[in-house]
Amino acid sequence: VAPEKITTVSIGASVGLYVGLSGVVQVGVAESTTLARVYGSTIFADRDLAIEAAAPRDINQNALTIAGGIAGVGGAIVVLNARDTVVSEVASGSGSTAADTTSLNVGGDIDILAEAELTSQSNVGGAVGGLFALSGSVLVTKYSQTVIARLGDYTQITAARTNSVFVRANQQFTQNVIM
Questions:
Q1: How far apart are CA 139 and CA 163, in angstroms?
Q2: What is the rounded CA–CA span in Å between residue 92 and residue 159?
Q3: Nearest Cα to Cα of residue 8 among 131, 120, 128, 142
Q4: How many helices (H) and strands (E) would you count in the chain?
Q5: Main-chain phi, psi angles of 160, to 5 degrees
Q6: pLDDT tens for residues 36-78?
Q7: Which of 22, 99, 105, 115 is the most buried (most CB within 10 A)?
Q8: Distance CA 52, CA 149 (A)
Q9: 103-106, strands of its sheet edge to edge
Q10: How far is it, in rounded angstroms, from Cα 140 to Cα 4?
């Protein structure tokens, strides 16, 4: 598991007799690779066996601009680029009798799980005052996930009381925006 929590706060403020001009540019890049791999091994488990890789990520971005004067101009640009790769696998062997073949001797269930989850909260805004007042905000979010759960070729399973073999890949993206 590779949990990550990121919080950013950016504030720009300006007051002038004639012109108040403020701006914020906030760029966030978050990238992770999480891997749980069994390769060329023999595993003995009297009970359940779980091979899990998870990358939960929580990002909270905050940006505010304040400007005042006869002319008040403020703007905020916030960019988030997040990339996750999560792999949970029993890797393929080169043949059923090859040395790199994996053998699972399990007394219970088998669960191979890869999971990526992103929760993003973005609060972007501006306050301006004056005879001429202009405020703008831009939010750009790009998120990509590669999530793989795999039970490889030539894996040998000996199961005494196994009811289930689960191979699951889960993805979740939640974004809340206040502008």
A1: 48
A2: 19
A3: 120
A4: 0, 10
A5: -75, -50
A6: 999 999 999 999 999 999 999 999 999 999 999 999 999 999 9
A7: 22
A8: 9
A9: 42-45, 103-106, 156-159
A10: 20
